[in-house]
Each structure stands twice: as C-alpha cells, then as structure tokens.
Design a protein that fits this description.
The strands form 11 sheets. The chain has a 4-stranded antiparallel beta sheet. Strands 10-11-9-12 form a 4-stranded mixed beta sheet, with helices on one face. It has a 4-stranded mixed beta sheet with strand order 29-28-31-30. It starts with 10 loop residues before the first helix and ends with a helix. It is of the alpha/beta class and about 950 residues long. Strand 20 and strand 21 form a beta hairpin. Helix 1 crosses helix 25, helix 17 crosses helix 18 and helix 23 packs antiparallel against helix 24. The longest helix is centred in the middle third of the chain and has 29 residues.
Length: about 950
C-alpha cells in the first residue's frame, strides 16, 4: 500500500474498507493465528438475539472482548473468538406475530408448522442485523465458525442435554405456582421477573364472620382486591390471641356468596395490617404453599391474558384492573371497606415487556437446581473459576446457595420443542429415544419419535406443545458451539474456554447456568457424565463482569425514557475507534461508565493526533527519499534488533529515552490487559503516544529528521519509525482501524498481512535505560517550568525570551548544557544563563523544584499580587501533599504490608516536596 496520506482523518471510509478486507479474507480464522506460544485463548461471544441490533452495552462488551482477542492473537496464542446468535424465542415470535397482525392473521390461523416456516423466512431475510453491524465495527471473530442456537448441531445438543437430565430425574413436570406474563402469554422464570417499588393502595376489607349476623368481622388488608374473588380461606397466626377463638370457624366471602374457613398458620405476620390475611392459593406463591398445607381449594379466576374468567362470577370478562375498580366500588357500596391507606410495595414485572406478572398455578417443566448448584459453588470457592470483580463472586455464591428450581418451559412455538410425548390413554410421558435430529424444510426436529407408549403400548402419542426457555440452549453455548455431544477437535482444543465477558445483569440467567451445565454434562467426558475432573468440565476459567454504560448524568440508559444512545450514530459521527477508546479508557472493573460526547470527542482528538503525527513523518520522509534513501534502509521490521540506532554527531539521549519508555509502557499495558484493567491499558498507551512520542520525541528530534546530513536523517527516521510501528501495534487492540491503516503505510519489510497478525510489543531489557528516563524527566521539567512561567506572564507564545537557570548539582548543569538546543527550542527561549548562586525572585518569576530554579525576568505590567497568589496556592498544595505522605508513613500497618520500594519511593518524594516548599517560602518572603 502506498504512503499517500490524506490531510484529514476520515474514519468512515477507512473503517468500511478494512472491515470488508478482514471479513472477506477470513483474517481471523483461528488457523491464521501466529500460534507461536503454544498457548490457547478461546472466548465465546454472548449470543445476541437474532432480532437485535447493536446497543451501547454490546459496544462496551465487544470492545473489551475484541481488545483481549486481538492482544492474545498478537502474542502468538492460538486464538478463537467464536460468534453466534440466539434464536430469542419470545422476541422473535413477537416480531413475526406483529407482521401477521398487519395481515389480520394470528399464528393460530396458520398452524404451528406454517408459523415456524414464516419465522425461518423472516430470519433468512431480516434476522442477523447485529452480525452485519459487528462485522462493520471490526469484531475480530472467526466468522467461519458462526453458530445459531436452532441450527441442527446445536438442536441435537439441546436434545441430548434435556434427555440426560430427564432420565436422571433432574427435569420434571408438575403443577406449581409460576410467574405468568399476560402479554407474552407464557410462563417465565423467577429471574425474568423484575421487582420495582411502586406507590399503591392498601385496602382494609371486612369479612363477616359466618353466623354473626353481620355483627362480627375479620378485617383483611390487601393490595389486590380483585383476587379476593378466588379466596378459599382467611388466615391468622396461631399465637395471635386476638383471633384464637375464631380458628376453625368461617367467614362469608364478600361478593361471592360462599363461606371460607378461618385457619391458623405461622406464615401470617401478626404485625402487618390487622394480622389477618386472605388466602388465594391460585394467585399468590405464599398462599399456594399455605393452601397445600391446609388442603385448600385452588380457584383460578383469570384467563391467560389477565381477564376475569367464569370463576369470577359477575366480574367475568373484565380486565384485572377494571375488575379491581368494580370490586372496590361494590365493597364500598356494601360498607365493607374499613379504610384505604397509601402503601409502597414491590410489584413484579416481565423483564421483556414490562407487563405486571400474574402468579398462577400451571403445569410446567422444571429443572432441579440444588444438585447442579453444589458443584458450581465448589469450583468457584476452589478458585477453578476466577470471578472479576471479586464482589460479584460473593453475589454468585449467595445466589447458588439459595437457588430455586428453574421453570424451563415456555408456551411458544418458536424454539426447541420439548422432546416428550404424552399418551392419550394412560397419560404416561414418553421421551424421545435418543438425541438424533432430522432436517425438515432445512430445519432440525427430533428424529427419534416414539411410536408407542412405553407403559400401555398405545400409539396415541402427542408431542408436548411447549418449547424450552431460550436460556436452556444458551446454558450449553460454550460446548455446544464446539461440537458437543461429539468430542470434536475443536472441543478438545478450545474447551474449557479461557474467559467469559458478560454483563452482571445476566450473571444468574446465563453465567451461573453455564457453570452448572458444564460441570454436570462434562463435555470432555460424555461416557462418564459427572465424573470428569472439574477443571476440564468448567465452561470458562475466568469470568469478567463488566459494568453498565450510563448517561453523562449517571442515569441508566432507557429507550422509553429517551436516554438511550445509539452507538452506530456515534461511530458514524466520530469513528468506531474514538468510541472504542472512550469505552476502554473508562472500563475500570466494577465501575459504571458515564457516556458523554466530550469524552468521545477526546477519543476522536487522539485519533487525529496520531494521524497528523504520522502524516508529518511521511511528508518529511519524502524529502530524504529524494536523497535516494531506500525503504530497506528505513525498514522498521529490519532494524528492531539494533534499535535504538545511534544518531551521528548528535546526542542520543532522546532516542535512548523513548525506547526505554516504550519498554516500560509495553510491560504496563501487558500487565493491565492480563488483569482486565482496560482503562489503565488505554490511558497508558494514550499518554505514551500523545505525550512521550508526539509531544516530546517528535518535537525533540525534528532537526535530526530535517538534517541535510544523510546519515543523521536516516538514523533518526529509523528510530522514529521503529517507535511508531511498535506504538501502532501497542494501540491496535484499542483502535484497530486507524492502526491498520497507518501500519500499512510504514516502510516495512517482510511484514505480516495485517497488523492484527504482527507480534504485540513486550518489554525488552536491552531497551531499558533508567538513567535516560531520569535525565529526560529533568529536562522535561525545565521545559514545563518555562512554559508555565510564560503562561502566567501571558507572554506571546512565539516570542523568545531569556531565562536564568540555577542548580547545585553539577551533573544537572552538564545535562542541560548538552541538551541546550532542544531546551531553548521547546521552551521558546533565546538563551539560558547559568548561575551557581541564588536566584532573586524580586526581578523575575521563578519556578523551583528540588533540583533546580528557573527564572524569567519580569517585563512591564507583570502583576506582583498575581505572583504572590500563585506562590501561596502552590505552597498550600505542597503542604497538603506533605501532610498526606507523613500520615501514610506514620501508619505502621501500611509500612508492614507495603513493598519496601513503595515506602522508599514515598520517603524520597516527601524529601523533594519539603525542599520545594522551603524554596517557595523563600521566594514568597523576597516578594513581600
């Protein structure tokens, strides 16, 4: 690729071009990995819904995954990022049903088979938008291994898992209290119910005691008066003396013309309301348990869509909320409402559609979780799975300790149909004989359909109409995508996966269930399920739970509230790399991210800075190419082993310094990525690229780059391109598009096909030069001091002025004398007069450090009061810093636990700060 580089950085054109190249050339197939280290790194993409599109949570998650995947690939690990999509049962069915509604059709009008064909047709034509977006945004997945939860291989895995668990008695069917969503028209699990505090009413209703002729009442308190139509008892606490004499008697159920018993049960809270509660076993989970203990009738008085049914008498046909109003009005008319109080209580809503959930008794399929949870707890406690951040480990363990059985059936048509057949004659349940699948119309179905009942021999068998919860197939994702239940090469190579990155909001939905399923099904030991070593059965070795992305004000993003942000619009406006950098630079473990336009602009400014620096170098390179300099002479890949290259007739300090800085930064970034400190990695690279490389190194070496001495120019360019090339590799996992574009414009020899396949920079002992870093720090401090004085004095930025310099250290004076030209140039000074004595602040503005003093003479109009105020402010700042360090050093616990080098460093800094304060106090006294 040529080195022509446009004046302006235009990310949209660059990103689209490279995204296409990466995908078309299958660059990220695992076989393309450098694989020098012999290590394997594998990670599965949390499968987005086939109906979905990229949102800012995906963008954060994908940025973090892509950073680590690119980093491992460049380190030479055999790296697999396996992508795929989830069939998203409820969401997808809703999409297609809305389409049918436009044709005045319902799915029941089509029948199950035809409806499923319609869904598959929609999926082929419109599903998978998010995949196209991920490709456009540069996700370095191995797209040749893409999976879908309803594809034949994964369908077979689901059947295998279900049948194993069923035969082991871990999956069962029963009539229990479940969460019912009247809008989704299906059962949902406990985890899919979101409880929100709401302000409501608490109605106190009089229930007449039977036989008292309306003279004696029990008052019950309820937030849902409409459910009283299904009451089959009222309950009091057995130790509540107020009501003991009434236990065993009956009350008349208002509005329903029937009597119900008064029972005693310890479930009742004597302190709440009147101490009497209504018992509605068919519409409350606690009442359901009470009803079982007391053998109470269960009256379901609602339809699937939450309207009152015939059991509600005259209220039949009313929506539940309309029924509530009518019931209250009728009770008031009868004088049976004692009082109404404001009441704040938790209301369960469907996580997907936000509809208020209705507790109902229903026959559903469940998975026993306690036997699965115990091994999962053990691997977390034993450290076989590391959970980051650590507080989420505690949350996970607590949930596993208190786990309840999982309702796994859904009343949908789109999904994995439960492989159980019901006998019409004896009601026996007959499972599929094995997990084989057949392809019908291109799609998988259970193939081993039983032909007769195993109990009575009847051939009247009908398959269960329910499908499995989407999260059931997702729980198998880490190993089903690698070929399980077969023990494939991919499964042996990449399982257990190395890492899972997930939002903490699905820790229980998905992450925990994968751990349980992996341990129980033992993907690498199918013949002896459950007996495989835990370290070989766990689905991932590390679990990193990322935080949420919030608005700039800290609120949770919400489309309904208008606070959602479309990341695709942001990438179109600022570039993908800018948004990636912003997200990475704020990704501290356990800390939510406040998304703001200013921060994204900072990422875009960083990209522009790199682009402009590279353009400056390429423009200057053209000048020395006119001197017949060959690419081979400048090829960074060729001279890395010799770098830093000595520059003839010129000081080499800046060159030794920048290579030492690169070595230090590489070590810091590698360590940060190893420990999921994405923010530290991004910010460390930023400060190196923008500060060390662009602002200091390029500016310091500009005269060498423009030198008419051919050898000097070539040596300087060799060094600068070596650093630039390494810095681009360092930055690549964070900003892949910009780095790929510029890397291909470098004068490289025998380079890889992509920067993504080049080696990631590592610390090199031969480049480490502590003395050079220390000396350069002194020179930088001098330049910054001069610039600060100039800014305070409001001097013309281009006007050169003279300055006085004093130090008691001969080595520092010699260092300054040896580097006088770049110091004068970068500080915009005409000269630097050396003094071995004390500098008088009365005649100029002074900046002091523990090693030197720098003074620029006062010009006309300099404000003495301003300088006094500045000195006082700086003295106050240093005094606070000194006090803080003294307190820390006085802490014996800190001294005992902190590494000795840390303590010594604080002691050294304290001594320097005390010298600085003393100098400033002397300056302050002179000015006064």
């Amino acid at each position: 690729m040529g080195r022509e580089i446009s004046k302006a950085y235009e990310p949209q054109e660059i990103e689209q071009r490279w995204a296409k190249v990466w995908f078309d050339e299958k660059l990220f197939r695992v076989e393309n990995s450098r694989a020098d280290s012999g290590h394997v790194f594998s990670i599965a993409l949390p499968p987005p819904n086939v109906t979905g599109s990229i949102h800012v949570g995906h963008m954060l998650e994908h940025t973090q995954m892509d950073m680590l995947v690119r980093w491992h690939r460049m380190r030479g690990d055999k790296t697999l990022w396996l992508p795929g999509m989830d069939h998203a049962g409820i969401a997808t069915q809703f999409v297609v049903e809305r389409m049918l509604a436009k044709e005045n059709l319902k799915r029941q009008d089509l029948g199950r088979d035809e409806f499923e064909r319609r869904v598959w047709k929609w999926k082929a034509e419109s599903g998978g938008v998010i995949k196209e977006q991920m490709i456009r945004l540069g996700a370095s997945c191995d797209w040749t291994r893409e999976r879908f939860t309803l594809e034949p291989a994964l369908y077979r895995a689901v059947l295998e898992a279900f049948l194993r668990l069923y035969r082991e008695g871990l999956i069962y069917r029963g009539r229990y209290m479940i969460n019912w969503c009247p809008r989704c028209m299906t059962a949902i699990s406990d985890l899919e119910v979101v409880h929100n505090e709401r302000s409501g009413k608490l109605w106190f209703i009089r229930y007449p005691v039977a036989g008292s002729n309306g003279k004696e009442f029990l008052v019950v308190a309820t937030t849902r008066p409409e459910t009283m139509l299904g009451d089959t008892a009222v309950a009091v606490h057995p130790d509540d003396e107020r009501y003991q004499k009434l236990v065993g008697k009956k009350v008349s159920l208002p509005l329903m013309d029937r009597e119900i018993p008064i029972i005693a049960d310890t479930y009742v809270d004597r302190e709440f309301g009147s101490g009497v509660v209504k018992i509605t076993p068919a519409h409350d989970p606690n009442d359901f348990e009470v009803g079982k203990r007391h053998h109470l009738a269960e009256i379901d008085m609602m339809t699937d869509d939450a309207h009152m049914n015939a059991a509600a008498g005259k209220y039949a046909g009313l929506d539940r909320y309309e029924a509530r109003k009518k019931v209250v009005a009728d009770l008031e008319a009868l004088g049976l409402i004692e009082r109404v109080a404001d009441h704040v209580h938790a209301v369960g809503t469907c996580d997907r559609c936000k509809t208020e959930v209705e507790p109902r008794i229903s026959t559903q399929w469940f998975c026993k979780m306690k036997p699965l949870a115990e091994p999962a707890k053990k691997v977390v406690l034993d450290g076989l799975i590391e959970v980051v951040p650590d507080n989420q480990r505690t949350i996970l363990l607590n949930w596993l300790e208190n786990i309840r059985d999982w309702c796994i059936s859904r009343q949908l048509w789109w999904g994995h149909r439960i492989p159980i057949w019901h006998c019409a004659d004896c009601k026996e349940m007959v499972p599929a004989t094995d997990a084989k699948v057949e392809i019908i119309d291109g799609h998988a179905r259970a193939a081993s359909v039983p032909t007769k009942c195993s109990k009575c021999g009847s051939s009247k068998l009908t398959q269960d109409t329910d499908v499995l919860d989407t999260w059931f197939s997702s729980a198998l994702w880490p190993f089903s995508t690698l070929g399980w239940p077969d023990e494939t090469d991919d499964l042996r190579t990449f399982y257990p996966t190395s890492l899972l990155i997930s939002g903490y909001d699905i820790l229980f939905f998905w992450d925990a269930r994968m751990i349980m399923m992996g341990l129980h099904l033992a993907p690498l030991g199918k013949s002896n399920a459950g007996s495989a070593k835990p370290e070989n059965a766990i689905p991932f070795r590390q679990l990193y739970l990322h935080a949420l992305v919030r608005t700039a004000e800290g609120a949770k993003m919400s489309k309904t509230k208008g606070t959602g942000v479309d990341p695709l619009q942001l990438t179109e406006q600022y570039g993908t790399d800018a948004l990636r950098y912003m997200l990475a630079s704020m990704s501290a473990p356990g800390t939510d991210i406040a998304l703001s336009e200013d921060r994204i602009l900072g990422g875009r400014a960083f990209a522009n800075k790199i682009w402009n620096a590279a353009r400056f170098l390429f423009v200057n390179l053209e000048k020395i190419e006119a001197q017949a300099v060959t690419l081979e002479e400048l090829a960074a890949a060729e001279i890395r082993a010799k770098a830093p290259y000595a520059v003839p007739n010129d000081g080499s300090l800046a060159h030794r310094w920048i290579f030492s800085r690169l070595s230090s930064v590489a070590a810091q970034v590698n360590e940060a990525l190893e420990e999921f400190r994405f923010h530290e990695a991004a910010q460390t690279i930023y400060h190196f690229f923008w500060g060390d490389f662009c602002d200091w190194y390029i500016e310091w070496t500009k005269p060498q780059l423009a030198s008419t001495n051919r050898d000097t120019a070539i040596a300087a360019f060799r060094n600068i391109f070596t650093i630039l090339e390494a810095a681009l590799r360092l930055l690549h996992p964070v900003m892949p598009f910009l780095t790929e574009e510029l890397w291909h414009k470098l004068p490289l020899k025998d380079a890889a096909a992509s920067i993504a396949l080049a080696a990631y920079p590592e610390s090199r002992a031969s480049w480490t030069a502590a003395a050079a870093e220390k000396e350069m720090a002194v020179l930088q401090e001098i330049v910054v001091a001069a610039r600060n004085i100039r800014a305070d004095m409001k001097l013309d930025q281009k006007k050169k002025v003279s300055a006085d310099f004093s130090t008691g250290d001969p080595a520092i004076r010699k260092l300054v004398e040896q580097n006088l030209e770049p110091l004068l140039r970068l500080a915009t000074l005409s000269e630097l007069a050396f003094s071995s004595g004390h500098l008088d602040s009365a005649s100029g503005a002074i900046r002091s450090s523990s090693q030197f003093d720098l003074r620029i003479a006062h010009g006309a109009g300099v404000n003495k009061e301003t300088e006094l105020a500045r000195l006082k402010k700086e003295i106050d700042r240093l005094a606070k810093d000194i006090e803080s360090k003294k307190e820390r050093l006085a802490d014996e616990t800190f001294r005992q636990k902190a590494p000795p080098e840390i303590v010594r460093g604080i002691e050294a800094t304290l001594a320097e700060r005390q010298i600085e304060v003393q100098k400033l106090l002397e300056r302050l006294a002179q000015l006064k």
